[in-house]
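Thread: quick sanity check before group meeting

JM: Hey all, I'm pulling together slides for Thursday and realized we never actually wrote out the predicted structure for the chain we discussed last week. Dropping the sequence here so it's in one place. If anyone has concerns about the input, flag it before I start.
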Amino acid sequence: MMETTILFIDDDLKLLDLLCHYFQDYHYKILTATNGTAGINILNTDKVDLIILDIMLPGQDGFEICRQIRSESDIPIIMLTARGDELDRIVGLELGADDYLPKPFNPRELLARIKAVLRRQTAVPDGLDRAEHKQQLVVKGPFQLDKNRRIVSKDGTTLSLTTVEFNMLSVFLHNIGIVLSRDRLLDLVRDRDYLPFDRSIDVHISRLRQKIEVDPKKPHFIKTVWGVGYVFTVE
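JM (edit): ok, ran it. Output follows.
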């Protein structure tokens, strides 16, 4: 089994020391950086499976670092903040973070969230025969979803999606024409591994529309059903 590598970007040395010891007990490989530049340098030289990114960093803050990472990679990101500010949470999600955890937190909760994000990202194992692989392909309208390789294309062009965006689009493609409430989407997309953010679905919907709609302000595929939720159509 390949070792999972987690990069912590945080300038709180005591917290880094605590988390390093805690997660090493669970057989994770831990890399650390105390500022965004050092974190980016590590990403350029080491294979990293998930990033824990603090918002309050010296120099460039976590938002800017998240923006830089997302311009190059869809690697899962969990953001940390001491503020507990809802606006910070929304901004982080809009920039492409997969999850968000306010400080102080219990390391056990962070571990649960890491496992949940990695589990959602994990692809179907290789070695499928042709019939099995065919079952992993979903073709609806201009979209083709390959669940085996976790790739979605629209009109033949591969979409660059975060883990949550991929899972959300997958849910929609399996439920075309069915109105899904926010709670139902949270159930299907995030698996209720922890208490979800009350409005995070709206943020991810907005980001997904930016990537699949010709005009996100007048969506053709993901339509809002006011007072209920969303419905996906390819007509």
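AS: nice. The domain at 5-121 is CATH 3.40.50.2300 (Rossmann fold). The chain has two domains: 5-121, 130-232.
JM: adding both to the slides.
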